[in-house]
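User: Predict the full complex structure for these chains.
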Amino acid sequence: MNNKELPNHLKYLEDNLNKMARTRMLYSVISIAAIILILATGTYVAEESNAGSFVRGIDNFFDYPIALFAKTFDAGFSWFGYVLDYVPDLLYTFNMALFSTIVGAILALILSVFASGNLIKNKTIVWTARRIMDICRAFPELVLAITLLYLLGRSPIPAVIAIIIHTAGALGKLFSEAIENADNKQIEGLESVGSSWLSRIRFGVLPQVMPILLSYGLLRAEINVRASTILGFVGAGGIGEQLNTLIQWNFGAKITAVMFLLILTITLLDYFSTFTRQKLIGGSFIIPKDK
Amino acid sequence: MDKVSKEFLEKHSDVINIKFSKYLRSFFYLFLIISYSIFAFYSLGFNKLTDQFKPDFAAKLIQDSYSYKDHINTKWSDTSDVTISYEGGAFTKYDPKDFPEWFLSDTNKHSVIFNNQGIIDIFKDRIEMKGFGDEEEKKLLLTFKLLNGKPTVEGYTFDDPKLPKWIRVTENKVEVRPSLFERLQVYSEKIEIHRFQFGWKYFFFDFASPFNKYSSSELFLLFFSSNRLDPEISNARFMFNEFLSNEQWFHGLVFSSLRDTIFMAVIGTLFATIFGLLLAFLAAINITPFNFVRFFIRRFFDSLRGIDFLIWSLIFLRAFGPGLYTGILAIAFTDTGTLGKIMSEAIENIEKNQNEGVESTGATRNQQHRFGIIPQILPVFVSQSLYYFESNTRSAVILGAMGAGGIGLLFLDSIMTGANFENVAYMSILILIVVFLMDTFSQWLRRKLIGNVFVAIVK
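Assistant: Here is the predicted structure of the two-chain assembly.
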């Protein structure tokens, strides 16, 4: 299009638009270049520091799964017996995860009420509660669990405590975001009829946010099952510890039995939580922030 | 009751008269949760927690994390020959010509002066100790001697009730521990004194480093000075090398492990994002018309996600050995599944209006995708990738401990040796800082790129 034909203000607009488009283009090019650079250096560093090279690894990639399946096939029908053998360990791990999710969620709820600016007017309390949650969240469960395992000895308790702390922080942050996004009109309405602080939370906030909180809790339960399996590897017991022993002794058929149980549980939990979540909050996971 | 309020009551009866069964149901759920919690509390063994917990052991480890100790060792056969070593290490013995200032040598005795002004004197045939414990006990002068080849406290019988509580006399040993910061052990052969001090000693330069004798201001001047300590390299370079090769704190190893962990998280998430996005277009119903392709890709996502990163890491560990690839691929595989699923749902949920609007201006199909679809899914795409990046920083630490390497493995190793708890504390602080920085960085980037959009975490 010829610029001379355009009226003055449109020409100005187009110039600006072109300028913005150029800047945008520049940004895109820079970020793509940065990503390529990171990938290149990363693979270089990985190639340097890894015990084996990538190409050799790709060659061996299917060896282990194939060996496992061959042993499973050799085991024949007794494999199903192995699967049943490890169900109690799975329940043990599941017990750890469920208990720590419940306790963690209760702690998270308490913390999140104090970390929500629309319920607590005192800024110091809000700030402190948020920092407490940040610290709880920042520690990977494993780091906490290993330290506690060392102090308390081998038992599920250190793992449970570690998961509780992490859950309280992680869920607390999400809970407080959900509470802060709740509609303030209902709280104000309750305030206008002279209701107490606790009943404002009970009747003004909780009914609004309960479905979101529950779906977050379900997701967390799913994550915690994975976490407690992993913590079993470092000595918390349960199916993780069994898997670790089996891998060290290289019992092929039993390894696949445990892996099958794990994948089955995780997949079932995944479908269950997606299904319940859809019932609770209508399937959408994107909640636009109005503020 | 007048008519209006009666009508009102009838109209809102579901709010005002909540059915009893509804109450009952919520109480039932509450009862279930509480009774399960009680069951779990006992089945996990929380009631036995106090039996397992060893407060002394825990106190010792926690003290080790913030303090260091010097060992003063000597033998009854020749008490004039004293060795002082940092943390009792064989390679960290102080030079006899250059003993610390709290150790005084006289013609007939050596004195160790503690931070609480207490003094332990080592004589040829006895050890005298004064100024420890509470106000009353500080006045006591305790003398330890060998009697018939057995260590004893002079003037007190074996398990004398008048002895201070912090002295334990057994058959072959007298153990004196007035507080966490002083300790004396007298055996029939040797004498060992532990002098604890607050802080992380030799944090910057290790025991053998030539920089130890300088104060911080001198070091600062030395850093820029052209007067080379080592003629081969500049002082700054020398200092840097000494810092990284610290034998007590292993800074070089710790930093390279941290770098590995960060790389694992960054590269793993990047790969997952790229492949997840590409495959998501194939799995979206409004982009891909072929049903079997969609079905195949969806099941592929499900299986990637369902096989947890723990199991992926075990498989990769066999193929690639311990190292970065194991971590990168485990993260990339798991998250390709999750991110792909989320992206494909986001693509399916887009508003058609924008696409039609772009179409009405006469745009081609590619332009419709570019200006109609991409701007809509970009916020979801960016925020989800960044959320996953955040959680993958933690996952990378965990993967490391599972055998992939990085700071996780180093942390696990150093805690399992159980000797140097200060290193454990140092590493956990570093992990905390890195995780915190990564979180802040990703939050900043998210806000910068997509503004204040609140997107729930799905993982």
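The two ends of chain A are 41 Å apart (CA to CA).
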